[in-house]
Design goal:
Layout lengths: L9 E5 L2 H6 L12 E5 L4 H12 L8 E10 L9 E9 L2 E4 L3 H11 L5 E8 L7 H7 L5 E3 L2 H10 L5 E9 L15 H7 L3 H10 L6
Parallel strand pairs: 1-2, 1-3, 3-8, 4-6, 6-7
Antiparallel strand pairs: 3-7, 4-5, 4-8
């Protein structure tokens, strides 16, 4: 009698307490296997260290990794609450291609009816981006920026071959700049969207053909 392989786990990584609150219950969701929701702390260094530490656990060997949370939109016409699905993440130490972008877009549109979903490169920063720096990053081809996604995915693929993705919710944009990117006030629409995205993440996870180990 053959033994079925254990379902591959999913690691969902976010940085802020308010993001973790929006994703509350995600570790009890119906994905393709066990789900862990990790709050890494703010900034690329914290994300890199936290993800590497968690993926070192044997039960997360081969886990798919999805970075999520809030971001700053770079493209004119973006609004708080818009979704960004990264085609790749850009870090000073390397670019990571994302897996299943088209499926994520399809599932996000279903999970958050009426939402606007943007696809393109998501770039990393070690600080909150404002003013002219936003337009400079947009000129590189990036459509959004945050402090943790690129470091999260770079750390994930360095720990072993695995599917990775990044989905972010725009909390401020060129015409809608907030005083602080992590604040709920002014970003309540972004919070509501982030609270609704988990079913799309589970569908992405179920669809994956993870490499056999």
């Amino acid at each position: 009698m053959s033994t079925q392989p254990a379902p591959a786990p999913l690691l969902i990584a976010c940085a802020l307490g308010i993001e973790r609150l929006a994703l509350r219950g995600g570790d009890r969701g119906q994905a393709g296997g066990p789900v862990t929701v990790l709050r890494t702390g703010m900034g690329p260094e914290a994300a890199e260290v936290s993800v590497a530490r968690v993926l070192a656990h044997p039960e997360l060997a081969g886990a798919a990794v999805l970075a999520t949370g809030f971001c700053a939109g770079l493209a004119p016409g973006m609004h708080p609450g818009d979704l960004v699905v990264a085609e790749e993440t850009r870090h000073p130490r390397g670019t990571v291609r994302c897996v299943g972008t088209d499926l994520l877009v399809e599932e996000l549109v279903r999970a958050v009816p009426g939402s606007t979903v943007h696809t393109g490169p998501l770039t990393g920063s070690d600080h909150v981006v404002r003013g002219h720096e936003r337009s400079e990053l947009f000129a590189t081809g990036a459509i959004a920026v945050d402090m943790e996604s690129a470091a999260t995915l770079l750390s994930a693929v360095r720990e072993g071959e695995r599917p990775v993705a990044a989905v972010r919710v725009v909390v401020d944009a060129p015409e809608h700049e907030l005083v602080r990117i992590g604040t709920v006030r002014g970003g309540i629409s972004a919070f509501r969207v982030l609270r609704s995205v988990l079913p799309a993440f589970y569908e992405w996870h179920r669809s994956l053909l993870l490499p056999r180990r």
